[in-house]
Amino acid sequence: MLLAATGFSWGFVLAKAIGLPAPTIAVWRMALGGGALTLVALARRVPWPRQWAGVLLAGLCFGVHQLLYVTAAQKTNIAIVALVSALQPVVVGLVSRRAVGEVVSRRVQAFGGLAVLGVAVVVLSSLKSAEHDYLGDLLSLLNLFAISAYLLFGKRARLEGAPTLTLTASVFFIGLCLALPFALSASPSVPGASRQWLLLGVLALGPGNGHLLVNWAHGRVSAALVAIVLTAVPLLASAWAALVLGESYGLGHVVGSLIVVVAVEGARRAETKSAPVVSGQR
């Protein structure tokens, strides 16, 4: 999950640096990532999911998430986009029992609230930055619900026996079908520069494969812990955005980062004590 969080944090920076319309980036990212994973799955003879309800719903939510997060990252401060997405522990904690049958312990919930506090410190530090845009903030909020639903449906698909490789490839292609009409109406719909192709490839095979890691982790940790660890994304993303794109970064980002680090480690320890790790799932 920590590797996935690191990859996702770079995804925001790459999405802003590529210089293409959001639907175009989303489609090519899913096409390249899904194609690569399909080749690996065929080479390893990994079976495809037998039950498709969870996979289909996860793919649709993933496609919406891709469109929203890339658009939001292009419009407003990256720290805010990543920050709002990191409120997943609240959403997942509220519905995980009904959605996937998981009971979230009070200690894990408490650390989730602490992580949200740390994220709030980061976002408040970014409100007066030159990159801030309220429409981007709204899209970030909508993306929160899309990515939370994707995580829960992905967990459901794993519980139904979907292998990690083919689940992730399927999710990419289902999301691709949803985003394709938007990409075809955008201009340009195909990258025109070798630099853009290179960055798209890095985005698809680097941060994009964070989803493969998340789906693998679903078989071993709870959906709530997955969401809490992903709160580290805005802290890393804001640091990369400051270094690469020159976006605002100050004391508030440092303080918020430290709070989230404490929350993630506390949640990890709380979950380790409350339940044994599940192993043996592909």
Instruction: Provide the residue-averaged pLDDT.
Output: 82
Distance from first to last alpha carbon: 16 Å
How large a portion of the residues is in β-strands, by DSSP E? Answer: under 5%
State the shape.
Answer: globular
Low-confidence sequence ranges = 276-281
* Number of beta-strand segments: 0
**Number of helical runs?**
13
Q: Gyration radius, to the nearest Å?
A: 18 Å
Would you kindly provide a written description of the structure presented here, covering whatever features stand out?
This protein has about 280 residues and is mainly α. The chain has one domain (about 1-275). About 75% of the residues lie in helices and about 0% in strands. It is built from 13 helices and no strands. The chain has helices at about 1-15, 20-45, 55-75, 80-85, 90-100, 105-125, 135-160, 165-185, 195-205, 210-220, 225-230, 230-245, 250-275. Helix 3 (about 55-75) crosses helix 8 (about 165-185) and helix 4 runs antiparallel to helix 6 (about 105-125). The chain is globular and about 45 Å long. Mean pLDDT is about 80; it is low at about 275-280.
